[in-house]
Write the structure tokens for this entry.
Amino acid sequence: GKPAALVFETVAPDGYAGKVKLILAVRADGQVAGVRVTQHKETPGLGDYIEVKKDKNKARPWITQFAGMSLTQVADSEWKLKKDGGRIDYHAGATVTPRAVSKAVFKAVKWAEANRDQLFANAGGTK
């Protein structure tokens, strides 16, 4: 009877080819349940691997690496690309796009954490 997760949209405004729109699910304990790209104009064959259906790694698409991450388990400095000293993988030659997505996911998770009590307090209260 209690809410399990918050699902919301966010935007990475600084993708290589403009805005990258995302949908996130964050569990009540602050852990990322999942992230998906809903719209982008990134370069086909280079930066578009952020989208599950276009990622060549079908076993573990790039965007799935955020699942399970939380602010209590992952230091703020680790929500960056490995190239920038963090823990997020990226594909060589395409760093602007994953850098923008990683930054947007981190900001969204921080927002959800800062507002968690209020966001989950009203869940399920309307009929």
